[in-house]
Amino acid sequence: MNRNNEEEQYASATAHTSMKRLEPLKEAAESLGIKDTRVIKRLIRENKLKAIKIGNRIYITTKSLDKFVG
Asked: Quick one: 60 exposed, middle or buried, by C-beta within 10 A (0-12, 13-18, 19+)?
């Protein structure tokens, strides 16, 4: 496999959100075009997004983000 082809495959793989398993709350909000993180927290409470809390930080699963966006 030539180098350019490898670079293209890497670029397309990293562009897809499912390569990352967890996304910080603020980044998740930005990726959905939402400015206020309270909206994301409400979506978590409504079970529309799945989140994991590690210490004081909240991470949203990229799988739930993909599912929410449709």
From this structure: buried
- Confidence bin at 39 (pLDDT 50/70/90): very high
CA 53 vs CA 11, 15, 47: distances in Å: 29, 25, 15
Domains parsed from the chain with CATH numbers:
21-69 (3.90.105)
Supply the pTM of this predicted model: 0.69
Helices and strands (DSSP H and E) totals, the chain: 4, 3
Question: 68 near 61, Cβ under 8 Å?
Answer: no
Give buried/exposed letters for 26-59 (b at 16+ CB in 10 A, else e): eebbeeeeeeeeeebeebbeeeebbbeeeeeebb
